[in-house]
Amino acid sequence: MDFSLTQEQRQHVETVARFVRTMILPGILEREKGHAFPEDIIAKAWELGIMNLSIPASLKGFEVDAVTSALIIKELAYGDSGIATSVMCNDLANVVIARHGTEAQQGAFLQRFVAAPLLASFCLTEPGAGSDNMAMTSFMKKTQDGRYLLNGAKCFITNASFASQFTVFCKIGSPGGAFMACVVVPRGEGDREEVEVSPTRGRRIRLAAGGSVWTGKEEEKLGQRLSNTASVTFEDVVISPDQIIGDRRRGFQYVMDVLDYARPMVAAIGVGLARRALDLTLEYTKQRRQFNSRICDLPVARDTLVKMWKKVETAELALMKAAWLTDQGDPDRGRYASLAKNAAAEAALFCAAEGLHLHGGYGFMGEYEISKLARDAHIIDIYEGVREVQDMIIGRELV
Ligand SMILES: Cc1cc2nc3c(=O)[nH]c(=O)nc-3n(C[C@H](O)[C@H](O)[C@H](O)COP(=O)(O)OP(=O)(O)OC[C@H]3O[C@@H](n4cnc5c(N)ncnc54)[C@H](O)[C@@H]3O)c2cc1C
Fold it and tell me: Where are the strands (E) in the chain, listed by range?
């Protein structure tokens, strides 16, 4: 087995590392404190070709294999895991179109992301349907003219306030329908669209094709404050058959397919965050002295640093194996994606918490980046399937 990177992969890593050093890390704490959505950084990431990694080259997209995209996202998350989440969310929303959409749908719904730095949202989770996606009640019902009306409420949706397009999973026929469909809801051009703001319900976008999309107030989050998260409600949204991706009864299989693709990417976010926590802690404990010694030379503290390094390296190995199996189309790739996600979440949580501890009281202060990482790390263990759901997948496949 060859662990070396190709010349192209090395170039990608160097490009992202430079971008992180020059555009993301300087002033990151001030930016985060201000909760200012980093549109300038997203636009630059688009310009550099480090987002939309699932859009096929035939559409002039930046499609790369899973190993390369894991390397890119890991490096981006080293700068900020919230920005990496926003950037990666385009692929979470678009990969199902790239894989199961017709040529015409790919042209209509993917080309626009190649042409401009737009954002997409992946709308699966609902207030009553988190880990158990099939419990969702959003649904679309056929009308006499052969089109459908989509109604339902989604929550915790990344990029929602800035999205130009929503990939939505919903039941067919009724809220309790047995089948799930995947549909795409694009917003119109700015001048063809009416937007109004309600103090209680948020922002209403009246779609030119009919119906409204409401996006709620931006969520106040513990961490990843540079990613945007809000609820999305669909009200009598008119869906024509050419907005339905693939077989309209196979939405659940498409969700599984998307998550198999995306879990190594979340693992990459976790590994990037964990390595940043390790590097910051090494830097700090090498210069801070107590008991006439550098903190990093105190035996018990050294032991913690070793444990942190081991978690990062092990999680990275699990990530690379999962990404490699994804590229091979291996039947066991889902199980390894779950392993990588859990290992990365564990590394991120451990390194951020222990790193903060090794900073002593300073780690508890807002002006030390490690305190931000300790807040950010929790979500790695939650989104795209909580730890227990990953274990459920591994267990099911094992036996
Ligand atoms: C910042 C953020 C961004 C997000 N972005 C998106 C997005 O873009 N699109 C989207 O669709 N969703 C998104 N989500 C939703 C996210 O995927 C869900 O929050 C997650 O899947 C968990 O669902 P839940 O919050 O309803 O928790 P629940 O399903 O209610 O789970 C709560 C807890 O119960 C336990 N539990 C659950 N299931 C099991 C089980 N089978 N066995 C044992 N214990 C279990 C676990 O301890 C779990 O943490 C986002 C969430 C956040 C916080």
Answer: 119-123, 139-142, 148-158, 163-172, 180-186, 194-198, 202-206, 212-215, 229-239, 289-290, 293-294
pTM over 0.90: yes
d(CA 41, CA 22): 11
- Number of neighbouring beta carbons within 10 Å of residue 27: 10
Which residue's CA is the closest to the ligand 1 atom numbered 38? 131
CB 170 within 8 A of CB 183: yes
Residue of 162, 265, 386, 393 with the most ligand 1 atoms within 8 Å of its CB, for mutation: 386
- Given a cut of 60, whether residue 191 has pLDDT beyond it is no
Pairing mode of beta strands 180-186, 202-206: unpaired
Question: Is the CB–ligand 1 distance for residue 392 below 6 Å?
Answer: yes
Per residue in 46-104, pLDDT tens?
A: 999 999 999 999 999 999 999 999 999 999 999 999 999 999 999 999 999 999 999 99
- Give strand pairing partners of 268: none
Looking at 189, 384, 388, 397, which residue is catalytic?
384
Domains of the chain are 7-115 (1.10.540.10), 119-249 (2.40.110.10), 252-398 (1.20.140.10)
> 331: which 2 tokens?
């039947």
